[in-house]
Every structure is written in structure tokens, then in C-alpha cells.
Amino acid sequence: MAGLIRVSEAASLGLHAAMLLAQAEGERVRTRELGERIGASQAHLVKVLQALSRAGLVETERGPHGGVRLARPAAAVTLLAVYEAIDGPLQTSECLLDKPICDGHCCVLGRVLHGMNQEAREHLARTTLADVWRPKAGPTAAGLRQAAS
């Protein structure tokens, strides 16, 4: 069933990858391992990781001992920063259409959508990877490698 609020596949990949990197606690994780764990296309995941790298959220290193890791502590990375690095600024539009056709007072869902978007934005802005990461529940980089085998 479809919901009112949707997150792009790229943003979803970015949020999940960032969470797995937070769980790796600074260790480099191979892109292939992340892709297998998330169930994502390698090509799409690489594009998402490039966007996170351009935003300064992850560091990548090529080679046999390479991989990707968070560029900052998990407590310093908000979910909003990850989202916006991939999809751009989160807008709190009051109209279902990109180009409003009404003044917002008569819109069928305008006020509801605006409130939901605003609430979602505020939640993402105040929530860090460390806030949602549970060290005991998530795998380390070694655990990711073992799970990928």
C-alpha cells in the first residue's frame, strides 16, 4: 500500500548505508558488502555514496584495503544532512503540484502535507545516526564482511 510520504530510493539507500557505516564504528566497509547488505544495485549505491562523499559525510578509499566510512562521528551526522546530500533541500510545500494552482487556503491536503513535511524535516534535523544506531543490534564491519560471505 502506498503512503502519503515517500522517500526516494536514492535517499533510502543513503540513509541505510549511513546507518551501516555508523555501526561499523569507523572501520572501512567495502561498497560491495554494503550493497549486499542493503540489497541494492552496486551502480546505484556508488552514485549515492559519491553524493555523500561530495557533502563531506563519508570518506572513500580505493584499493585492496579500501572502502567507505563515515567522515565524522555518527553523533555529528543528522539524518537531514544525509537526506539533503542526496535529494537536495527538503521542501515543506503546501501544494500537491510543483506549481500551485490555488492560494493554499482551499487546497485539499495543503495544510496537512505542509505540517507532515515540516514535522518530518524537524525530526530528521534533530536526529543523528548515533540517536538511531543501536550498537548491540547492528553488525560491525567484520560482521558485515561475514554476512556477505
Main attributes?
mainly alpha, Arc Repressor Mutant, subunit A, two-stranded antiparallel ribbon, 2 strands
CATH superfamily: Winged helix-like DNA-binding domain superfamily/Winged helix DNA-binding domain
**Class per helix and strand makeup:** mainly alpha
Number of domains: 1
CATH architecture: Orthogonal Bundle
Question: Which parts are unreliable, with pLDDT below 50 for 5 consecutive residues or more?
Answer: none
Largest sheet: 2 strands, antiparallel
Mean residue pLDDT? 83
Distance between the termini: 34 Å
- Strand segment count: 2
Helicity range of the residues?
40-55%
Oligomeric state of shown chains: single chain
Query: Order of strands in the sheet with the most strands?
Result: 1-2
In one word, what is the shape?
A: elongated
Instruction: Please state the CA-atom Rg, rounded to the nearest Å.
Output: 17 Å
Give me the strand/helix succession: HHHEEHHHH
Compute the number of helices. Answer: 7
CATH topology: Arc Repressor Mutant, subunit A
Class in CATH? Mainly Alpha
Into which percentage range does the β-strand content fall? 5-15%
